[in-house]
Protein 1
Amino acid sequence: MRATSADGLAITGIVAKEDFTVNINNMLRRSTLLRAGVAALALSSLTGFAGSAKAQSITPLVESGSSLLYPLFNIWVEDYQSINPGIQITTTSTGSGAGIAQAIKGLVQIGASDAYVSNAMEKAHPTILSIPLAISAQAVNYNLPGVTNLHLSGPILAGIYSGTITKWNDPQIAAANPGVTLPANTIVPIHRLDGSGDTFIFSQYLSASTPSWKSSVGFGTTLSWPPITGEIGAKGNAGMLAAAKANPYSVAYIGVSYASKVAAAGLGIAALENASGAYVTPTPDTIGAAADSIANSTPPDERISMIFTTGANNYPIVNYEYAVVDSNQEASAVADAIRTFLTWAINDGNSPKYLKQVNFLPLPAPIKALSAAQIAKIQ
Amino acid sequence: MQLKPFRLTLLGLSLLIPFALGAVVLFLLIFSWQAIGFNGLGFVSRVIWNLGDLYDDPVTTRGVLVPAGANYGILVFIAGTLLSSAFAILIAVPLSVGAAIFLAEIVPHKIRPALSMLVELVAVVPSVVFGLWGIAVLVPFIGTVLGPAISKYLGFIPFLAGGDSGGGYGLLAASVVLALMITPIIATTLLDALLQVPKENRESAFALGATHFEVVSKAMMPMVRTTLVGGIVLALGRALGETMAVLMVSGGGLNILPHSIFSPISTIASFIVSQLDSAEGDPTNMAVRSLAEIALVLFIITLLTNAGAKILTSGGFHVRKPKQ
């Protein structure tokens, strides 16, 4: 079957070529615009025919959303295309909010998001699933000449980002860093000004650890940031990195997929206080510990925050990277394709071969089972 | 009546542009209608912009279901847009007038085409490239050299103090980037006009004993004043609507009005881009509708500046003759 269609393709290809040369000759002879139009039409109808003949065995899927997940999807799709040529996946990086919105509208089949679908959205669209695909984390980085092992806590960061803590030698920072000589310089807080899952999980950490932040600013993919003189809004993780590098005495939150670039820029990685009162830096161990600690308490719809978990070794800013999918697909072939791809993603796709490249961690076994159960719901 | 296919086709094509414009405005108006009602006139005078809590149940505020704590005020963005464009024009006009006169009067004929092509080339540099240059070169320069110098020596002028804020990101960086982008627009428009000044006028002025400076400033510039204003309006249109480059260097000021040329700002266009993604997470859709309303405001601002310029150019300007 496939062989014949390939032959057919080859033949139409030759015909098209001949047609084209004939038309070119005509054009050269008479040089009329009309001819060019006919040639273009003939060509497009031929290629269109070839395309429809090919489409019978291939299901196209579109993925859109989180710019943090985008590199992983790109690595996945490149390999997956050779494993299963029957599913053709297009990846786009638009932002978590757009990913969720487009998945709800049915414009894309897989929405990628750093945040699960909100309660309010879930109420309005109950068929939307939030399926964890991998685990990511976020580092709080600082540009503090002479200091290499800084401890920061949620209340300190909330103070910095709301303008109540303005100097590096503030008593609260000093109390968290005994024995460290802190400079008297003004802190330059840097935040994302584009909508971002990074802002979402950072503000969730502040909200979970600091009641006053929760009641005044709250959390979201963009915030109504309290105005602070000297604060910088930067675009994208790359912009955050550039701003932190260029501004001594700055502090910024940057996803761990940028870890190597952050290290190259000479920025420090803060040890953050977790819910057990311990200061931990983001490492595979501490991120894994946070994920494991809630693996058994995750509800079946998997919409749960992994921020600020209890456990001596738990890193506090850890999150699932979600695929947002409508469980009620119009075409069963599309539903089959989504199930097949996502099942691959949480199994083979979770191998270090892929995740290492973006510093993500694989799903723990209980979470993988829950994700598989959710994937099975896509019909 | 005889059908004239050529005429009809042209008529159709020419109607397409106003039709498209009308359709866009109409769409924005219909889409943002609910937001216009909800926000009222205070929309343009409030300072605080807050999408509210998008993750909890929406609440009824002023009779409409919106996220809890939602408050849409865009005075900060209007101020950022107008200030950055105004400063950009202030920087760009002397530069481009100088460049155009240099190209028209000083440069030898043989190399003029090459040089004017260089100026035109600047106009086609994608804005994101200017933004990158802004982040890599301009922002650190303002933050470490220019900013401190200005606030040290000119800090007594109210709007110029406070060089340490924003670390280089802010109004000045945005204005300089915008100025670079619009300088070639004004310069090339003006150059074309200067080259069309009749030889007779120029030579008569010389014959009367005018210096080269007087010839340019008294005989030639008055003749091209309308074109200069037209070029500035074109440039203003670009500056008001510029998005990406501004977003990269403006520092994204929010909830606070700029108090110096170093303050972080947001312009309307860049703010829409930066908020759209989060706004789409609003289950009540009010955030996206409010963004559409901001777009309408931007449209009105550009319309007003264009209309103003039209009045300027059609009024006293080109009938006024140089003083005898």
Protein 2
Amino acid sequence: MAESAETVRLTIDGIPISVPKGTLVIEAARRVGVMVPHFCYHPKLKPDANCRMCLVEVEKMPKLQTSCSTVATEGMAVRTATTVVHDAHKSVLEFILANHPLDCPVCDQGGKCDLQDFSHEYTATASRFAETKRIFQKEYFSPLIETQMNRCVQCLRCVRYCDEVMDVKALAPVGRGTMTEIKHFGAHPLDCEFCGGCVQICPVGAITSRLSMYEYRPWMLKRADTVCNFCGDGCQITVQTKDQELIEVNSAQGAGRNNGDLCARGFFGFHATSHPSRVTHPLIRRNGALVEATWEEALEFVAEQTKRLKLAHGPHAFGGLISGRCTNEELYLFQKFMRLTIGTNNLDSSARYGHVNGVRAMRLVQGTHRWTVTFEDITQADVLLLVGTNITEANPITGLKVKEAVKKHEATLLTIEAIQPAIGTISNITNLSQQHFCVAPSQFHAAVLGLLKAVIEENHIDSTIRQRASDYVSAVSQAVQQLAWDNLALSTGISRESFAHMAASLAGGRRVVVLAGQTLLRSQGGYGICLNLLDLLLLSGKLTAQGCGFAPLAEENNDQGTVEMGAVAELLPGAVDLTDQDARAQMTRAWKEELPLAAGATLIEMIDRAQAGTIKSLFVIGENPVGSLPPQTRVKEALGKLELLVCQELFLTETAALAHVVLPAASAMEKAGTFTNTEGHVQVVRPAIDPVGDSRPDWEILSALSVFIGAPLEYGDAKEILKEIRAVIPGYGSLGPSPIPPAVDHAAVNRYVTEGYRHGFATRYTLPAHAVRPEGTVQLGLVQSLFHSGKLSTHSKGLLQIEPSGFLQMNPVDAARCAIGTGDRARLSNSRGEFTTTVKVFDRVPEGLAWLPDHFAQNALRLFDCVIDPDTKVPSCRTASVSVMKTT
Amino acid sequence: MPKHELILLKNMMQPGYTGSLQDYERAGGYQALRKIVGKVPPPEVTATVLKSGLRGRGGAGFPTGVKWGFLPKGYQGPRYLCCNADESEPGTFKDRQLIERDPHQLLEGIVLACYAIGAESAYIYIRGEFVLGARILEQAIAEARTAGYIGTNILGTGITANVWVHRGAGAYICGEETALLESLEGKRGLPRVKPPFPATHGLYSKPTVVNNVETLANLPHIISRGPEWFASIGSPPKSTGTRVFCVSGHVKRSGNYEVPMGVTFRELIYEQAGGMRSDKPLKAFIPGGASAPFLTPNHLDVKLDFESVAAAGSMLGSGGVTVMEEGTDMVWAALRLMEFFYHESCGKCSPCREGSSWLVQTMRRIVAKRGRMEDLETLVDLCKNIEGRTVCAFGDAEVAPIMSTLKHWRPEYVALIHAAEAANLIMPEPAGRL
Amino acid sequence: MLIEKYKSDIESILSRYPVKRSALIPLLYLAQRDEGFVSEAAMKEIAVLLRLTPPQVYETATFYTMLNLKRVGKFHLQVCKSLMCALAGSDTVIGWVKTKLGIGPGETTADGLFTLSAVECLAACGTAPMMQANEDYYERLTEETFDRILADLKKDGTSSLKSGPFMWPEAPKAQ
């Protein structure tokens, strides 16, 4: 962009430097290695210039200037080291210290405190302050966050962060003058997003984490920079440990794709893997019960059974299932194990629950399996369209990028979400929307079709695509012509004018990014809707434009890796088709062995085959199909029929409880490797502690098994596997600080517009039936909570403090209709069964819908139906019609 | 017959004048508006005001025409006028009189200013305690709206100027123009970092002018009688027009007196306000509200204009003149004002926030005869470290009482400290001190 | 609920501002008029009306001295104690309150009738000493007028001694 090219030249203490126009003096100084002391300044926040610490001399200006709020201009001469400046710093510090207590010995910030550091630098002598220090009444703030307001320097970084970055606004500076203190509202503990931002951004010890209170001094801790494994955003975290104990997680270095921002899961959820119920020894089922065994015994047992079953039933009697929480190295080794050691393509991963829909759509239309955009493109976009993302809860840090684009750079935000705009204790992305369509997940399809129809009818079609692919353009045009505006309005409640308005905003954007999230990807027809969204970009000429693109959001931290490592039935490493002859040949050369030919079974197919008795054995790594799939799939019964069920697990899940052998796996805190985040950025995972008990990383277990089975896949460490990955998969070479996204493959686009689009075209351009909701029922949806991730987080003591159990969240109107209120018990029922839970009235739930957090919905699964996508085999079991009755 | 011609207080000095629309019109009101609205191009109105030499009456004395000229030219979109009626500077009570006794004079000024700067909305930010004033203004606005002086089609010209009353809620700092804007936006009244200035990023980040009540009330007269007339009053070229000075303290006749700028303090205090209330001579006076450094009897012949008072080491400020007689304890007086500033510091900037609490505690100690000689050095140091180091001018203001009393009446501080030393005991902190 | 009781007032307030948050102080006044102070429930309701979070309402409410977050007496006596009034004897006025009502600054009489606050400058320096009782100013106080005011307030809830439109010195009387 033009503005970034403009620079100004200035001198800092005589050192000349050239900086982009608009750079603040304090930042310019940082670039020449001069650190101007400050408290209130933070690069993420708008300058507030309240602490007055960063005063500097600027030639030709009469007074000292705050370098945090002064913009560098051409020819400016700044002096930061004169006596006048030094005295000013000293005097401001004297003021700040006047009321500050001398409790450094018991302060958790001690050793990493800006005030301590500056005091050391400026004031060696005793204070002249001989008056009474201000004392605030100590108030209980929250089980997770401790406030000690006597230490507060009133820089308001916490308040500003909570507003400007998070859009949560949970903190209030209360009172006036020297008695101003930071508080939350109400006579109850703090209720907010618990992102930990206030703890991280506080320059002193006024706001600290209670999880690690009074436990350590910073210099006693060992640090490991690694990657969070709670969602696909891939945040860099610093895990601090003492001996083998996890003490604290932060991202205070401001590094990584998250630029130092975290969410509650990342900041307070780290205890999940150190829960006492971890499986720490191998278990073998003997006389019906799982009993402890040695590794040797367990591996021997699995190997013997495997060899026996393979001999008796062949390799296709086996299947494998792996979690998207595993490292790339483990995913890679898993599929290699299944394909070579066992000899079958019956393998799948948690990406099947939804991520596969987005990736398959990208591959078909634009020929990539990754985003063609990055987080930076989101923050710099001028138009953003979010479809079914539930972004704050599902991908909170990607959500921050969206907030940044809107709040800092004034991007136009368009949303199609099953969320009502409402102010709450956690942020709501639709509050920032310029235009928002509130539709139920079942009508996302209709809303996207309406938007497509408007783009076409309002003539926003790109002239190039019209010329080059007239057949495709007219096919889509004709298809949308068949859709009646009245029907679209009936399905979505959105008028033609509104669709036209959104279409115009979208078409008017120069840098347009479309984000599709879990609510969409996991819903019925998710694949088709992704294709429709890609059509939207293609038709409006945005697909290939600079800064534009389609970005499906990954739920699990390494969903993207599972696809790229080939840990799904239909794809080989590099996310190439199993049927691709060149790719097969390449893999055969690399592995020096033939790959199995037969198409593999996907998740539901494997369960069906187990049910039918054709699959006899399943290797399950970190996945829990019994806990995730509705009973209607008869998954439990099917797994019960297996002759060998091997689970590599952290906990004794519902699935592991059925296993013949449970092998204790090491968590992400305990192993090395790499994760690939939602934007396709490969990042290094480093162990913070040793594996708990006898647990071992999954790759090590697989490797050992292969040896016992007699088809060894031997590696000395995870790096050796990465080396092999690098040889066979492009994009895993050097791991830079930010991703280099692939470009749209024009040949693929050509194939798509000439032929590829035809498959399933009629279905995805047909308006879904307008479901009539029977009186007294709501559409129950399984949703992601901000405070949990899968079931893993339900082992985290920090997160359980925030959200200990699941609630049925209902719209006030529906709740009133059912005569039900917050705290009441409700019975949900439909033809499949019933489930009783506690109700929370929540005004962001749209009328007619009700939400149940996925993480605690175990016993509610029986209410859900399961629909399999005919193309991608994604099982969709997230919504169900239920009636709600108050009960006691 | 008063010695000087009254401009702003003229109407209300007429016997029986009620401030109603009828009375105001009868006295020639709204003629200025009729003369120019829709007839004279707005830039010419600004030029007229510039030519009159009118300077802000709120405290800083910035030329009004220049301020208006800072608005971005050719900007499409809303602009705002804010009338600063947050009269809070201790010693000042003129705006209250201008509002409650002649509201239409102010309203005409507001509409004229709206017309000149192209603002369709004006907010009168009136201090919350002026409940009566707010009511009178609401009433006057309703009258003016009915008469077509305010609203969407002023005098049939198609020009819009809506005026709203917005009450503050008790915060001195909201008299600072950017704090006023924050407060009007429903936030805490904390001054904003400048630049950007209100002229480009004011109310709701839109171009905005903030003018004091007395400033705006002058406009109808400037328009009606011409800038040359106005510029000939007072001490031209830099201090033109009259000012309504508020005299309080130990005088015979306290109250508001409108005199041309440039008369001496002696005339204001001894002629207008009738001199000292008793036989005690004048000991000290504050020339321009609590933020202005104290002056002494030696300064009685200083002229009441911006430059002369500044040259005497103080400032004309808001026009609040507080007179103290011989026998007044100057350390106590400084402490009283320091208590005010401590109470009113918004808390944004560390030097002001922490400094005010430190200064007030030290001053309380000295007054309670628990001071030490080194306190005096510390006081001066702290004041110097606050001055010029804050976002707004509050920091400069809060050190004025201590710095100026220390300068002129240091022996009184020393005496209190000697008394402390003589007593040779550490007295407890006085309980229940206000 | 304020919205049910004062629907048209609230609509009229909201109509004055292009940005909702500006209506915050006016609505806090409305809440205070209704209950005598600004309650937690009122702050929550106002937050909903203005699409703010409750902490945003709270931070504003606590900045301004005229908004009471706790109950005060039926008559809130606010005696100015700034220098200009002090020169004219405002400390004496506070002394009268102590003698006559038995309360000091920040205290409320046992019958809940009077609360005394010692406040900073109320812009009536020329007519000191003065106090504000609820919405009304009482100026040039003497012990005699002060007694009458207290008696009037107890009896009638208001007093004829309250200030009208301000002018000092007074205008010449009409013939």
